Amino acid sequence: MTPADLTCTVLGAVRRAVEEGALGGAVAVPDRVKVERPRPGGSGDYATNAALRLAREARLPAREVAEVLSAELTRHPGIAGVEITGPGFLNITLAHGSRDALVRDTLTNILTSGSGYGQGRALSGQAVELRHRAEVRAAVTADAVRRLLEAQGALVRIDAYEDEAAGPVPAPTPAPGPAPTATLAYEPSPVPAGATAHELHRRFGTDATRWALLRAAAHDRPRLDDGLLVQKESNPFFLVRYAHARSRALVRAATRLGFTAGYEEDAAALGDHPALLAALGDHPAVLASAARLRAPDRVARHLETTAEAFLGFQHTVLPVGDEKPSAAHRSRLALAEAAGTVLAGGLSLLGISAPEYL
Questions:
Q1: Phi then psi dihedrals of residue 290, to 5 deg
Q2: Are 190 and 196 spatial neighbours (Cβ–Cβ below 8 Å)?
């Protein structure tokens, strides 16, 4: 059961509750509900605030609405249990078979889609005109926002000033699908970098400069100091690119040992690494959210989360000593390869290279 499947399941539970009159006669079934990873204090695999959204319309306490929806959801064979937390959040635990299928589907989607994993058509038919002032951080931000929007199907045009642009800006590529009905204007206005593009590129190089300018939220001042060049995992820029290089190194080492990636057993083989599985599964939602909010910093922070989770897992991938490669090793290699693919794809959307060797 994917997050999209679970969203449909929650909507189905709402629809049944409305049809049965359990929420009163005035409640309308929403077009969509939000399903996400549980927040601090939550539990299970996913959570939804559907009960809180419906409570006012139903004129019932949110926890009472949550109890109704919980009873409907637990009828589904793919759901092992539902816990109600806080004012009425529904925390959903998937059944073992559903969790295994989710892992399999996630890895298959990543390895099949490659660097395009997580990109979609959520903004298809939307046209956006980006303008930016003559300042390096504004130019870099506009370019990253363009990449994110186009990755979700939008048609983007940048109205850039001539000086301080961070390299050439590619012409927009028409997106397939319906023609845009209106053009939205957007001008990124991040806190200025405090230096020119030439000064930053000469001191840090293009990739490190872009990372520093994009990692900080637009309202925060970017960190532009010698820490950007430190080759240690305490440096987020190095951490992300190092994790990608390690994933590629593991694939090369496995080839020398005579085995390749392949998810061949149930989720228990990877069950000790929920943080990495969650990060990979959340990647599409992060990209969509970053595009919608014009916030490339969300992608950078998600890549850091993915890299940290991967580096905590990497030591389990290859056989040790005289150990022979097993199905578990092939499954772990698939997870490692998927992590590298997500890291490379995310860096590419930020306009940053992902070297295979560091």
A1: -65, -40
A2: no
